[in-house]
Amino acid sequence: MVDPATQEVDVDDDDDDGSPAEAHDPFVGSEHAKPVMMDDSAEPSVPLTSDMNWYILKVQSNREDSIRDGLLRRVKMAGLERYFGEIIVPKEQVTEFKSGKKRVVSRKIYPGYIVVNMILNDDTWYMVRETGGIGDFTGSAGRPSPMMPQDVAKILRKTEEKADDAPRLKIKFKKGDRVKINEGTFENFEGDVEQIDEANGRVTVMLSIFGRSTPVDIEYWQIESA
Predict the structure, then answer these.
(1) Are 223 and 179 in contact (CB under 8 A)?
(2) Strands (E), 79-158
(3) Hey, what domains does the chain have and what are their CATH numbers?
(4) Under a CB-based contact definition with an 8 Å cutoff, are residues 139 and 72 in contact?
């Protein structure tokens, strides 16, 4: 009886030519493997921002900020953020004098309008048009017209100005306006505006003094409409 532990096992080496065996590469496909095809119908990746244009939207006056916020909410809820960039209510910083006190306020540059950076397609067009308070895109022949690059740059430059960047004065008077001086040496005198110096906040008013028309320079907050 043969002990299994010592039994010799014949190995078929008819195909062994003495050369080392080649290792199998698991990443190499067989000659019958089919190539993997990409699905061209798959949704494209996030659009490039360079594909976006700036458009002007007509909106209800005095509601520009709330309409902008409403559009932003709708865009997020619809999952269309990748088609929208900035949505801006163009504003600038101006200096006002009230009761002799100087203050800086934010003023809308184009009341009744907002600007939006977006890719225009059917979905985004309906999204904008169906937002409450928005009238329509500006354009011609019923087609939205993108803004010119130089106009966009001008608006963005103004909106980025800070209060300490020497904002210009907001002087509501113009040459020829009849005004009354409400403070100072010539209080209660009336005259016509001759010149406005917005840089320094001063106004030249032509007053009748001793029967002669005399130019007087005063702070513009010291006058009011006559």
Answers:
(1) yes
(2) 84-88, 91-98, 101-108, 113-118, 134-137, 139-140, 143-144
(3) 49-159 (3.30.70.940), 178-225 (2.30.30.30)
(4) no
Measured in whole angstroms, the distance separating CA 143 from the mean position of its chain's CA atoms is: 21
SS3 category, 78? coil
Segment 165-217, tens digit of pLDDT: 555 667 888 899 999 998 888 889 999 999 988 777 789 999 998 888 999 99
Amino acid letter for position 4: P
DSSP state of 27: T
- Cβ contact 54:119 at 8 Å: no
Contacts (Cβ under 8 Å, ≥6 apart) of 75: 81, 83, 84, 127
Digit-coded pLDDT (tens) for 86-104: 999 998 887 776 666 677 7
Residue 27 tokens, joined: 């990443």
- pTM of structure: 0.56
65 token code pair: 């900020």
Using CA atoms, how far apart are residues 91 and 113, in angstroms rounded to an integer?
11
